[in-house]
Write a structure and sequence with these properties.
This protein is an alpha/beta fold. It has three domains: 3-302, 2-Layer Sandwich (Nucleotidyltransferase, domain 5); 322-390; 394-528, 2-Layer Sandwich (Alpha-Beta Plaits). Helices cover 36% and strands 27% of the residues. The protein contains twelve helices and 18 strands. It has helices at 46-59, 91-102, 135-147, 158-167, 213-229, 249-252, 255-263, 292-302, 323-390, 394-401, 438-449, 518-528; strands at 3-9, 13-22, 25-35, 66-71, 77-84, 110-116, 125-134, 151-157, 179-186, 189-196, 199-207, 240-246, 266-270, 278-280, 411-419, 428-435, 456-465, 474-482. A six-stranded mixed beta sheet has the order 8-4-1-2-3-14, sandwiched between helices. It has a five-stranded mixed beta sheet with strand order 11-10-9-12-13, sandwiched between helices. A four-stranded antiparallel beta sheet has the order 15-16-18-17, covered by helices on one side. The model is unreliable at 491-529 (pLDDT under 50). The chain crosses the membrane at residues 328-348. InterPro entries: ATPase_NBD, FtsA/MreB, PilM.
Length: 529
């Protein structure tokens, strides 16, 4: 069972009950009354007052950290107002407007709550009981309890809380056509209220100046009578069928018969500590009536029966549906769905691309391995290509050389050897052959080196007699060097036409042309011999 502290702040004292509250009832462990020091001003020093209250509770060994507070009727204004017959959700704004019209103080200085009363059948209006208290008093209570280390969960009004006790009486009538008078006494202050059904429909208080009990009772009866005579609206004096004096027999034993004689309704004394659902585990105070509202506020936390007043959570218009928020939520959901859809699509596309990249990387790796294995072969092929590119095309060179050869009846080649160049030495052609005369061999060498394209240079030549061929008795040899800037020569592979005649490209030497140069001298020597 959770611990709960009920507090009522009077002008010069604080009443309290330390209890345990459960859905089945209230177990009271301690009742106390704390006199506020005259030097302590609750209004100007709420923090200091909270520290004082905290120390007092510690001395009483009160362990509760949560509390419900009750405000005395004397600081509240209760006003009955007839309202148009409007739905309950429209009442708070309409009540606030009417309260602002009838209040002597601005509403921003007041804490307001109201009790909607049952509507009479066939009536075009409905009644409410508006209650207001100074907002400053509410702020003081909150500051004091916070300084005392307490969390206040509710701040109610004493006559409404006391109605919880009366509603739990076995003799209470649930007939909404009749009402019950409820009277509590707080020292010189007497609170008078009328309950109809589960609602407080009327509330009033009066101060009794008579110090003695014999003088106080007539004053109380007179105050009750005046209140009954002035009843209008939701209930009249004729509809009050019962009266409850909340307190002990010692407090109201003499008042009950006198009140019943004056007002005629049945009057009963109801001890709040003997109410159904209340268990007491402490010594009871003498002024039990002053604790009626505290007991009722604890019972309201267990199983509430009376319509409540709570200045911390007053009745407000129901929160209208926020369509903008709904649209924002829908938009957010749609955007989230689109984001998920787009994200999912991108996810699958990215996965597909990643798979493609992985496959391409695998292919690249395979090709790289294949290329790596083929690198030695490629290097050999490249070397071969380089070697081939650097070689002389000797077949083409043979065709070029053919342009310089004389007719075969004067000289012929027995052997032609093509030699590659080495180092800085150019390629060369070694020629061995026979000629009819020595001058024919000499003239052949000159023809070759003196040709207009200057393709060859004569490196060395030599002639000597030879008897192998009587018709060509001179043997000769020569070496031709291929010039570096000689133009490239290509073999002609096109076949000649059938009707064309192929002519030799070898230039012919006129038979009657006299030899010149060394050949002429050699011929002269041969003739002389």
């Amino acid at each position: 069972m959770p611990d709960l502290l009920a507090l009522e702040f009077e002008s010069n004292k604080v009443l309290g009950i330390d209890a345990q509250v459960s859905p089945t009832g209230v177990r009271i462990r301690k009742c106390f009354e704390l006199e506020i020091p005259e030097s302590l001003d609750l209004a100007t020093n709420p923090t200091e007052a909270g520290e004082w209250l905290k120390q007092q509770l510690k001395d009483l060994n009160v362990q509760a950290t949560q509390a419900v507070a009750t405000l005395p009727r004397e600081i509240a204004v209760a006003r009955h107002i007839a309202m148009p017959d409007v739905p309950d959700e429209e009442l708070p704004e309409l009540v606030k407007y009417q309260a602002g019209l009838k209040s002597a103080l601005p509403l921003d200085q007041l804490a307001l709550d109201f009790l909607p009363l049952p509507k009479a059948e066939g009536d075009d209006a409905r009644d409410v009981l508006i209650t207001t208290v100074p907002k400053q008093a509410l702020q003081e209570i909150k500051a004091i309890t916070e300084a005392a280390g307490l969390q206040v969960t509710k701040v109610g009004l004493s006559p409404v809380s006391a109605a919880e006790v009366a509603l739990r009486s076995a003799d209470h009538s649930t007939d909404t056509a009749t009402g019950s008078l409820v009277v509590t006494r707080h020292g010189p202050r007497v609170e008078i209220s009328i309950v109809k059904g589960a609602n407080v429909v009327f509330s009033h208080f009066t101060q009794i100046a008579s110090p003695t009990e014999s003088d106080a009772n007539p004053a109380i009866i007179a105050a009750i009578a005046r209140s009954m005579m002035g009843l209008t609206g939701p209930i009249t004096s004729q509809e009050v069928a019962h009266a409850w004096l909340l307190g002990s027999q010692e407090e109201f034993g003499a008042l009950a018969p006198a009140l019943e004689k004056r007002l005629n309704p049945s009057v009963q004394i109801l001890d709040p500590f003997e109410t159904s659902g209340v268990t007491v585990r402490t010594e009871l105070p003498l002024n039990r009536s002053a604790y009626s509202a505290l007991v009722g506020s604890l019972l309201a936390q267990s199983q509430p029966l009376a319509a409540p007043v709570d200045y911390l959570a007053p009745r407000r218009p129901p929160v209208k549906p926020n369509h903008a928020r709904r649209r924002a939520i829908i938009g957010t959901v749609v955007a989230a769905c689109l984001a998920i859809a787009v994200g999912g699509t991108m996810y699958f596309k990215i996965n597909k691309l990643n798979k493609t990249i992985a496959d391409m990387r695998a292919d690249k790796k395979r090709l790289d391995e294949l290329a790596e294995r083929g690198e030695p072969i490629l290097e050999k092929v490249q070397l071969l290509d380089e070697w081939t590119a650097d070689r002389q095309l000797w077949l083409d060179e043979m065709a070029a050389l053919n342009r310089y050869l004389p007719p075969t009846d004067r000289a012929f080649f027995n052997q032609i050897q093509f030699n590659l160049g080495t180092g800085n030495n150019p390629p060369k052609i070694s020629l061995d052959g026979f000629s009819r005369q020595r001058s024919d061999a000499i003239e052949l060498g000159e023809r070759i080196i003196r040709h207009q394209d200057q393709r060859y240079g004569l490196f060395q030549d030599g002639q000597k007699p030879d008897d192998k061929d009587p018709y060509h008795p001179w043997k000769f040899d020569m070496e031709l060097l291929l010039n570096e800037d000689a133009p490239a020569v290509k073999l002609t592979t096109a076949k000649p036409k059938a009707d064309s005649k192929t002519e030799a490209v070898t230039p012919k030497t006129p038979a009657d042309a006299p030899p010149s140069g060394p050949a002429a001298e050699e011929k002269t020597e041969e003739t002389a011999s």
